[in-house]
Write a structure and sequence with these properties.
elongated
């Protein structure tokens, strides 16, 4: 009888990218809510008009860029933290899916309109 040993790589880097995707999604959703709540934030998030970034995207330019930046920064930080480590993947996947779902829900008008200021 021969026993074969299968070498696996640590799952930390994969967990890092899943969690970073959740963070990026949540930031994208939150920027949408903040743009509805605050005129100043809404004007700031018009990266195409203000900074020439994301032309053709329109009012989503700043929201998309900040979501992508949140993903990239959190992926870098988490990647360094989880580098070479074996982590409990189940809880991280659950958290990532919750963050993605929350970010996704925050992009829908019936949800983000809840945060609109009440008119007197």
């Amino acid at each position: 009888q021969s026993s074969s040993i299968v070498q696996t790589k640590p799952n930390g880097p994969v967990a890092a990218v899943f969690l970073a995707a959740g963070i990026g999604s949540l930031v994208r959703g939150l920027t949408g809510v903040l743009a509805v709540v605050s005129t100043d934030i809404n004007n700031f998030l018009k990266f195409d008009a203000n900074y020439g970034l994301g032309s053709g995207v329109g009012p989503l330019s700043g929201k998309a860029i900040l979501g992508i930046l949140a993903f990239l920064v959190s992926w870098l930080v988490l990647g360094l933290l989880f580098r070479g480590r074996e982590v409990r993947f189940g809880p991280i996947l659950t958290i990532a899916l919750i963050l993605v779902a929350a970010g996704f829900l925050l992009t829908f008008p019936p949800v983000f309109e809840i945060f609109l200021p009440k008119e007197a």
